[in-house]
Amino acid sequence: MTDTTFEPFVRNAWYIAAWAEELDDGLVGRTIMNEPLVIFRDADGKASALEDRCCHRGAPLTSGQVTSEGIECGYHGLIFDGAGKCVRVPGQDNVPSNAWVRSYPIVERHQFVWIWMGDPAKADESLIIDYPYHEQPDKWPHRKTMFPIKANYMMMMDNLMDLSHLGYVHGKTIGGNPNVHTGAETTAEPTERGCLLTRWMMDSPPPPTYVKAVGFKGNIDRAQIFEYVAPASVIQRSIGIDVGKGARENLEQPGLHFRLFHHATPETETSFHYFFSMANGYRQDDPSATQQLYDETYPTFLEDKEIMEIQQQRLENDPSRELVNIKADQALFLARKKLHEMIAAEQAEMVAAAE
Amino acid sequence: MTDTTFEPFVRNAWYIAAWAEELDDGLVGRTIMNEPLVIFRDADGKASALEDRCCHRGAPLTSGQVTSEGIECGYHGLIFDGAGKCVRVPGQDNVPSNAWVRSYPIVERHQFVWIWMGDPAKADESLIIDYPYHEQPDKWPHRKTMFPIKANYMMMMDNLMDLSHLGYVHGKTIGGNPNVHTGAETTAEPTERGCLLTRWMMDSPPPPTYVKAVGFKGNIDRAQIFEYVAPASVIQRSIGIDVGKGARENLEQPGLHFRLFHHATPETETSFHYFFSMANGYRQDDPSATQQLYDETYPTFLEDKEIMEIQQQRLENDPSRELVNIKADQALFLARKKLHEMIAAEQAEMVAAAE
Amino acid sequence: MTDTTFEPFVRNAWYIAAWAEELDDGLVGRTIMNEPLVIFRDADGKASALEDRCCHRGAPLTSGQVTSEGIECGYHGLIFDGAGKCVRVPGQDNVPSNAWVRSYPIVERHQFVWIWMGDPAKADESLIIDYPYHEQPDKWPHRKTMFPIKANYMMMMDNLMDLSHLGYVHGKTIGGNPNVHTGAETTAEPTERGCLLTRWMMDSPPPPTYVKAVGFKGNIDRAQIFEYVAPASVIQRSIGIDVGKGARENLEQPGLHFRLFHHATPETETSFHYFFSMANGYRQDDPSATQQLYDETYPTFLEDKEIMEIQQQRLENDPSRELVNIKADQALFLARKKLHEMIAAEQAEMVAAAE
Fold first, then answer.
1. In a domain, A144, yes or no
2. Can you tell me the ipTM of this complex?
3. Which residues in chain A touch residue B327, judged by CB atoms under 8 angstroms apart?
4. How many A-B residue pairs are in contact by the CB < 8 A criterion?
């Protein structure tokens, strides 16, 4: 079996269950690691995640509604609090002691709703990635979304950590000329929690999206900084600065700046929820700048989705076939290496606990 | 495994294969207990059910047509009589002795077409439920229909025998206020062939459907009488009478009266054909009364369908998990108990026959 | 298991991968015998077939494009020549020696693109069926198409070699009266590579399509000559000549003449690509004659598709059940016999090779 299919999930880690704004519209039903969940805010606004299966007759809690006491099953009206404890059974005074549903640690921070699918005792909030930009609309106005992709979640991590695909999959939009990408100065280095991919394309023609964003007239020095944080996040910075302004020495000067947060939450072994937010660090007082960047980029992720979904089918067809490594895979391998360490550690803990 | 999923079917019992009126429009193709069937009337109007698979090359008989001799396969023209015997092979004079398809006992009575999926020798017509109301258009004008639900057939029996769901699933239509339902005086008792659930909601506000039907001005005494007849029928009477008229003593007096016949014919372990007929015992000379009741009720069954289909998925996810019992399950348990007795008896017979 | 389901494929044989004209529009993605393929012409116009799976990360080559060097993967830009060898990896000078994808022998002849799914060393071009009519637009103007059918490919061979179905499935179009068909003088005889079915319907009413084609005024002598060439081709000639003209003695005289080439390329065990071409040997200078014949016939193949797809389901339901033989199956059995000889020979070779 190659490393691209059907490895065990890392359970003791934080995954994005939802964007905070999704919960503002009511209950969210979502399957994570094959477990159907209902995610909701209680009457006090606190987010919770419960298994989406009433303990009474197995009905979905997502068919119900939030009451002042908790979430009420839409079938026979049992109510569960955010910890999963049944607090009311219609038609009787007592609640059976075995009436509860599984709950999951949830932390809402920086407009992410993070969930811990593993051992609740290990749910260490300090492991949550810090991402203050979502709270800085004046500096980083942003837009967020989510859509499903029918592929193993790591296909997205692979995609993001091998940017040589930009010129082929996205040549007409954010990518630009493939030769620019294959000629990029690329460094890949391990980090404590994953790896870092840095690419410089000096004195290169800006891709169409860049020109639309900030009106470049000539070539630019272009940097892409992608940080993989295992198991399922990639934090992206993209920068374009007019040639001759000393971009390498000063990344913070005016030009094109945007940040993306990418996350792939496993739904099943062969599907994931792709979350991304996109923030622009230019023309911050012009809402159309954010919208334009989003409108330019969103379709490119659908291009990725299309290719990944067939890629997944091809790999599933014969998972035992070896893949062929090329130089562009350097960061991808560092990412996979870190993931494998996490999986190995977690599996070892499980074995130890079972002994 | 819980009792809600994948128990063996009861085969030695009568199930509704179709409404009689369905056969008036021609052949009906329907899968029952995983067996694809063709149900049709012969040239004399007699109903028959055959497996929907020609013995010659396996083509579906539903692609054919009824002739004076029987049903003609739509592929190469073999003709089978209602007993499944091939009576004609185009292009040859003799019919091979092994040319036959399986036939099933069929009884048409009271506008039901009943089928027996088990041992034909045990097909006792006296077991067919008597339901003369379908033949009494002056007293009980009615309307019938059928639709598929992707859940184990017993989910429907559970649904009907635990009426505490009315206030939650159907609050805005036939159900009304949930507190009325959870406060109902409820009795559940075993019967020879199943169980009987009786609920009285004295001096309670009538639900919207009731008001539309007969124009109640104030509170009513409301009764619901649901009889489960194993394995797959529920016979329902619903009654509403103005408060103070002595409803308990005289159920037959003017008011709102309706009868439903519910039946869940297994298509597979995880899907069934839901048949129901609905008869009104008020404003019998006004066809719009029947139509109105039907139009009010039909959407509520789609509400049930929606919740049952997800419930089925949740139970299938992990059939071994125990469910939690509550007081409202009393009739449901009597129903399941009777079903289990039938299953156990049938399995014991099969074992004995095999020895 | 009956002989109608799930026999091994014959791999050492030529199958139609595509019509030549399909490749004129660009890449064709097509699954044959469970193997996803990309079929394309290189910059010189030579047709090739490669597995549709890049050796780098498993992405589909069908997402790419043809360049002067070969087909370029649409994900990271690797380029493969028509033999499957990787000739370029973006971003590096050398190509890893293990960078190749599987290629398949392809021969383009008479507007067929033939593929060999077995041992390339055995790909003998002399086995390709000669069919010059596609190159004779003055004598045999024609039209070709392809559509998918969800059934084992041999269902189509069975269909074509038992023409008693014409009167039942296609009574209103090309078939005409069933009695004409069941009364046809039929001979079935083995040939070196399959079998030959010949049917004469002397002094019979022409079916509607025939009348539209050449305006028959009275009865005709009608011949159907179907040659099965194992494993997956049927070559059809249909002829109608006015009664009294001595049709048997001289088949080539004026009348209605058409030729069809039928082919069923297995996609999976339970689906195939149905290729057919249809050529008319009358009114050759009137393009509407070809179009009219096509428009009359195409819908009849959809009638076959519909019945075969349910037939397949019925046979899959219980593959072990025996079928019942009738006289009309004579040619079908000769065809199956030849197929079984090919399968047996190929299996024996595989066993011998493994020893």
1. yes
2. 0.90
3. 89, 91-92
4. 82
